[in-house]
Amino acid sequence: MATILFYGLAFYALCGIVTGIAFVTVGVARVLPHASVTAPARILWLPGAAILWPYVLLRWRQARAAATKNSAQ
Predict the structure, then answer these.
(1) DSSP 52
(2) What is d(CA 70, CA 38) in angstroms, rounded to the nearest whole number?
(3) What angle do the packed helices 2-22 and 39-51 form, to 10 degrees?
(4) Which is it for the CA torsion 25, 27, 28, 34, positive or negative?
(5) Can you say how many angstroms the Cα of residue 71 is from the centroid of all Cα atoms in its chain?
(6) To 5 degrees, how large is the angle CA 48–CA 11–CA 64?
């Protein structure tokens, strides 16, 4: 049981790190298009994006859908 919990936590952390890095390099500009985010601010965003990666992916997906909807009009 402890092994399953450990691997689950490790998988969550790995997904969070990958999503967090992708978000702070590419996604911040898409989710917050009017904000100019500096490099130190991106470093501060990384832990939060890594921990809350399911929510970050949801917001990123919603921003992408809104952008495609606006470009189609």
Answers:
(1) T
(2) 26
(3) 150
(4) positive
(5) 23
(6) 55
pLDDT above 90 for 22: yes
Q: pTM value?
A: 0.80
Structure tokens that stand for 28 in this block = 């911040």
DSSP 54: H
Write out the DSSP string of 5-51: HHHHHHHHHHHHHHHHHHIIIIIHHHHSTT----HHHHHHHHHHHHH
Distance of CA 52 to the CA centre of its chain: 8
Q: Provide mean pLDDT across the span 28-43.
A: 86
